Amino acid sequence: MRPCAVPILLAIMLALGACAAPADRSGMTAPSVLALADPTDPTLVDGVAVGSVDGGQATSALGTSEVDNDDFQSALMDSLRNHGFLAEGNAPRYILYAHLLEVRQPLVGLSMTVTAKVHYELADAVNARPTQDQTIETEFTVPYSAAFAADERTRLANEGAIRENIGEFLSWLSRKPPPEVGPPLALR
Fold first, then answer.
1. What's the rounded Cα separation, in Å, for the pair 86 and 41?
2. Does residue 1 form part of some domain?
3. CB 16 within 8 A of CB 61
4. Which of 127, 141, 144, 157 would give a disulfide with 110, using CB separation of 3.0 to 4.6 Å?
5. Spans in the chain with pLDDT lower than 50
6. What pTM was estimated for this model as a whole?
């Protein structure tokens, strides 16, 4: 390779790397599903507020697409809203905490498959005691034909993996039984 070709190749690689965009909240939002409209625990309806969301990463200018905490939290809130679970304008029954444990991405490839692993924890909004928790792992594949640029396929796969993860969480949430509530402390 000629000496002047190396800086040109490096410049092209940096320019392509600078195109990485973070996962978008709308792409990570789980659409409304009629099957989830009638949850087993009726206190879920308008009863869930989102607490902290952690474990995400910001997309760096020279890195690959990532899922950041703010966009993940917004997608989670939008998804809860779409299903009638988000407490807006009234006191919540539950506080939901989400811990993004892992977003596993391929380094290279034509089809990009991303795996997302999230630990969700519901806590009683009155006493902050955890009531139930669930860890969900999902994957999503974006074929080469969906986007020419690898970073774009990775972003789409990130969004799909998180969207599927939130969707599976909402499915679990709608089927879960109400937490068992013991007698008041004075009666124990």
1. 14
2. no
3. no
4. 144
5. 5-18, 182-188
6. 0.82
